[in-house]
Amino acid sequence: MAGQSNPHLSIFSAPEVEFLAEDEVVEIVPNIKMDAVNMICGDFGPFFPQIATKVPLWLAVALKKRGKCSIRPPEWMFVERLTHVLEAERESPREFQPLPFHYVEMSKLLLDNAHEDIPDIYMVRSLIEDIRDVRFHKVETGLETISGRTHAVKLKNLSAMEVNIVRPFMVRALQAFYKHDSPEMIQQPESTVNRRAQVVDRGPRNIFVTVTGLNMILSVVAKSRDAFVVNNASFGAAAAAVSTTVMNCSL
Amino acid sequence: MLSYYDIDDILLGEEPISVVFQIGANGVGLLDPGSETNNVEKSAKVDLPFWLAHELFLRQAVSINVPSCYSLKTRKEIQADAACVDLRFRSPYFYELGCKLLPLVADKSIGPFLRYTFTSRYKEILCKSHSITGATPKFSSKLTKEESLLLEAARSSMVAFKKWRVGGSRLEKASILGRKRKPTMPTQPSGP
Hints:
The structure holds two protein chains of two kinds.
Chain A: H1 14-21, E1 25-30, E2 37-39, E3 42-44, E4 53-56, H2 57-65, E5 69-72, H3 79-91, H4 103-113, H5 121-144, E6 152-156, H6 160-180, H7 189-200, E7 226-230, H8 237-250
Antiparallel strand pairs in A: 1-4, 1-5, 2-3, 6-7
Chain B: H1 7-12, E1 16-21, E2 25-26, E3 39-40, E4 45-49, H2 50-58, E5 62-64, H3 72-80, H4 87-90, H5 94-101, H6 110-129, H7 145-166
Antiparallel strand pairs in B: 1-4, 1-5, 2-3
Helix pairs in contact in B: 5-6, 6-7
Subunit structure (chain A): Component of the GINS complex.
Protein name (chain A): DNA replication complex GINS protein PSF2
Main location (chain A): nucleus
């Protein structure tokens, strides 16, 4: 499965990531009585007034738009929790805090469509913005540490939208490093010693765990909720396969 | 060795390369503007496009000189401040040409030099790429083809994300729908 917006690059557009996020389950409190709805993805309901039930986000938003329910914000979307997360993000410069995989998209959908159901909405909105900025800055700092032939980059707890933003840049950068740091390009180690010394000293690479192995394209096993950006030896079609795998594993 | 369907590879083949003829060649005087006859003398120095230089090299007709963009002077400039060097002016296919030239020339230090150049300039691209919006910045005119593709990849994904965050309708209107019909009548007479 790859994004449809650009068939050649096989990357996802932001609305496509949002579409994927709509399958996340949220809790709603309906104010109508309605029979169960039977969908391909499952059966939801039946709905009774003031009895909370769990539905996918797209159904919650659709009901909310018609004024048939109120959405209960997920437990991570409260001010105290977000403040803790923000503090932790600022304190640990090399780690990402565990947040829902689709937290950027979910928060946007909920803030746009269910603003009266979320307490302290302005605070929540600005906290999520801050968290996203801090995390993105970390990603950039981490990208600076790439300086050689890196086969894959592991970013634990990175969310779907965040990895989607850096994916085009990162894949291209890894391909370029892969090409320029190949053994064919660096043939004479004795003449490259002093240059290598200049290049290598870029600080520790604790954020990025490199996965080695030459036929590594699909040998990288993505654990769920870990976002991978994988470099590959044969570009082009393989890149499509990799991006596809990345998204499949992450979902 | 050049990819047939890759426009960058095709343009790369046009880069002029300075070669020295190892043998005399008859009937190809047009390759050498300084030649008075229709022949190219042995040990004549001629600028040829890369694709031709490569083919002649494989037939051992020429030896290839390292182009000026990999010269010692450029290397010193790169070592001083890699990000400020206008590599596009020197060769828009700086890296690609270097990779293709490496097996053809004796100077194997081009490989490490390319890597050092890319690593130093990558930092600069990285710290600017995700933060710029709107017009392309001034420094992007110094980037080679590969570097500007990298910059563009980051910039466009960030722009797409910001556009999504600001919101708007998820359904996009086809551009043809917004267009107003021109009030003027068609002037040409209706044909059969």
